[in-house]
Design brief:
Blueprint lengths: L6 E12 L11 E4 L9 E3 L10 E4 L10 E12 L5 E11 L8 E5 L6 E2 L10 E6 L7 E7 L11 E3 L6 E4 L15 E7 L5 E9 L10 E10 L5 E5 L17 E6 L8 E7 L5 E2 L4 E4 L3 E4 L6 E2 L4 E8 L5 E9 L10 E10 L5 E5 L16 E6 L5 E10 L5 E2 L4 E3 L6 E4 L6 E2 L4 E8 L5 E9 L10 E10 L5 E2 L7 E2 L4 E4 L2 E2 L6 E7 L5 E3 L4 E4 L5 E10 L5 E11 L9 H4 L5 H30 L2
Parallel strand pairs: 9-15, 17-25, 27-35, 37-44
Antiparallel strand pairs: 1-3, 1-5, 2-4, 5-6, 7-8, 7-10, 10-13, 11-14, 12-13, 14-15, 16-18, 18-23, 19-22, 20-24, 21-23, 24-25, 26-28, 28-33, 29-32, 30-34, 31-33, 34-35, 36-39, 38-42, 40-43, 41-42, 43-44
Length: 615
């Protein structure tokens, strides 16, 4: 319905014609079988809303020569525009090939043959919805006609009314006959009437047994009516489906908006119809909503009062702000003394992200951040190289989004991949919503020393870095592993050549030496073979840490100190340049003092000798 007014469809008709030159137009004896249609007539189509027609076209009295030939068919829908009352017509034309499949042997109509057809299992529609009848009174009789469309007699059993509200309906069997001889013979009929004793909606089922071909037995259909009192009667339904909404009812049917993407904007509106089925003026308040703010009401055009039989409406939309379940309650005040005050019902919806959302966690449940330092079970701790693998630690990858999460094949990267074990047995690379998969990691060092590696895999979650890196660590222990033989470094001297090789043993040679921290004095360098050589350019005490690695990546580290003495005869400005002792100024003062004392001693010796020579 592209108009700004609701429309009511009340009738349907079909015509067929042969495709191509010449023509055939079937009118009398042609009909539309809507037994399995989702659209029951009459129906109200709200502005902007739509309905879907689906069913089977049955054409009777069509010459067999037209079987399997191309035919055009036009369906005509008739109705009224609610705002103006003007009649309207809608058409749909399609092409099909007609076959010679048998038709149902029994057809049922309202009022007369060729009237509105009643289909097996049909819900209340047409005149079978008796509308409002004041409680304690009776409505009009409705004739239900049973027509044999075959050449063989059809035997019938009288129709019965069943269901919890059966007593609110009456049946007259005066037109019953059995059998119905054939399609050109007489017909059978019975009459139905709505006579409610109490107010409220009444629903019942009419059924009868028969032996017609190609038609299920028993043949049944529903009827309904509304018992009205001399008061306003509030009736609330969903537009389109026509589903009634009970006081305090949960979010079902169209009131459950289902999954809506948080970035997609508001959902299509749900139209709520309010009807006065009573005999007095129905006064309404403005609808209110409580609960989640993700639901919005549009009620600007809603009427504040309804005459008997009048209808008004308001809309509800859902626009989730975050993922997860959202719920709200709609309430409406009114003056119906027999309805809940205020009248309430629930709406619900579920916000989703229409994209993959990846969550990575340890099997213990601790979430893993990409690129973070190893913690928890991923910091494996010391393990002897001969004791077997430690683990496994399970890494669980889960998709919390509503699009498939696609993973790349996991890999181990880093300096010590040979010391860790990756197990992807049973892993799934594509995960649907709320699905998960497991990657298993173990630590199995082949040599001693600290070990580091990373688990890496790509993915299509745009909110997380790809590849996703999970760091892990461990410490290999090996009593037969590589160790330093050299316990200390020999002393060196400034400006003199220095050459010493640091020695290691154990593990699996050859060995590679490197600096971890600190540095030897300027002029010296440490080679990969452990040779420390060069000419020290400075003197002092120098500390540095050396690592030795064997061919299996086993490592050992040790702190060394190198004492470099100053060159002979050097004068110093500070104690550090001397390797300890006095400063250079103090040294010059001491030398002058010694010279002074020697001079005084020489003078004293000379004076003593002079005194000894006197007579």
């Amino acid at each position: 319905n592209a108009s700004s007014h609701s429309v009511t469809l009340t009738g349907m008709e079909v015509g067929t014609r042969q495709y191509g030159p010449g023509g055939f137009y079937g009118t009398q004896g042609s009909w539309v079988n809507v037994g399995s249609w989702s659209l029951a007539l009459p129906v109200v189509v709200a502005p902007g809303a739509s309905q879907v027609l689906s069913g089977q076209l049955l054409a009777g009295f069509v010459p067999a020569i037209l079987a399997n030939k191309a035919l055009d068919a036009t369906i005509y829908l008739y109705g009224l525009e609610s705002a103006t009352g003007r009649p309207l017509q809608a058409t749909a034309t399609f092409r099909f090939g007609m076959n010679l499949s048998p038709q149902p042997g029994l057809h049922v109509y309202e009022v007369q043959v060729g009237g509105v057809e009643v289909f097996n299992g049909a819900t209340p529609a047409g005149l079978r919805d008796f509308g409002n009848v004041i409680a304690g009174q009776s409505g009009n009789w409705l004739n239900i006609v049973q027509k044999n469309t075959g050449s063989n007699p059809v035997n019938l059993v009288q129709a019965v009314i069943s269901g919890p509200d059966a007593a609110s309906f009456q049946i007259n069997q005066s037109g019953f006959q059995s059998p119905i001889v054939n399609q050109t013979g007489s017909m059978a009929w019975f009459s139905l009437r709505f006579a409610p004793a109490t107010p409220g909606l009444k629903v019942a089922t009419v059924s009868f047994v028969h032996d017609a071909a190609n038609t299920a037995t028993p043949f049944s259909f529903e009827i309904r009516g509304y018992g009205a009192a001399n008061i306003p009667v509030l009736s609330i339904t969903e537009a389109g489906s026509g589903a009634g909404i009970a006081y305090g009812s949960p979010a079902v049917g169209g009131r459950d908006f289902g999954q809506v993407d948080v970035s997609a904007g508001p959902s299509a509106p749900l139209t709520i119809l309010i009807e006065n089925r009573g005999t007095q003026l129905l006064v309404l308040g403005s609808p209110q909503i409580s609960g989640s703010a993700d639901f919005t009401l549009q009620s600007a055009s809603m009427s504040g009062s309804l005459a008997p039989g009048a209808i008004t409406q308001f809309d509800v939309t859902f626009d989730p702000s975050a993922i997860g379940l959202r719920q709200a309650t709609i309430s409406l005040s009114h003056n119906d003394p027999n309805a809940g005050q205020p009248f309430t019902f629930d709406v619900a919806g579920f916000g989703i992200v229409n994209a993959p959302i990846m969550l990575v966690a340890e099997g213990s449940g601790a979430q893993v951040s990409p690129g973070a330092a190893p913690t928890g079970a991923l910091a494996f701790g010391p393990l002897d190289v001969g004791s077997g693998a430690l683990g496994p630690v399970s890494i669980v990858v889960r998709n919390l989004g509503w699009q498939d999460l696609v993973l790349g094949q996991p890999l181990l990267t880093g300096p010590n991949t040979q010391d860790f074990v990756l197990d992807t047995t049973g892993m799934s690379l594509t995960l649907g919503h709320q699905q998960s998969t497991i990657i298993r990691l173990s630590f199995d060092p082949v040599s001693k020393g600290p070990k580091f590696a990373s688990l890496s895999f790509t993915h299509n979650d745009g909110a997380a870095p790809s590849p996703f890196m999970i760091n892990m660590s461990g410490l290999g222990v090996d009593v037969a592993g590589v160790v330093f033989v050299t316990s200390a470094l020999p002393q060196g001297q400034e400006t003199l050549a220095y050459d010493f090789s640091i020695q290691a043993s154990g593990g699996t040679g050859p060995y590679t030496f490197s600096l971890v921290s600190g540095a030897p004095p300027a002029g010296l360098q440490l080679g990969a073979d452990g040779r420390l050589w060069g000419v020290p350019a400075v003197h002092g005490i120098f500390s540095f840490r050396v690592r030795v690695k064997d061919s299996l990546a086993g490592t050992e580290e040790k702190n060394f100190q190198l004492n470099v003495q100053p060159a002979p005869g050097a004068l110093f400005d500070s104690p550090a340049q001397m390797g300890g002792g006095c400063t250079s100024g103090e040294g010059r003062g001491l030398a002058l003092l010694v010279l002074g004392l020697l001079a005084m001693l020489v003078a004293a010796l000379r004076h003593r000798r002079a005194l000894q020579r006197r007579p």
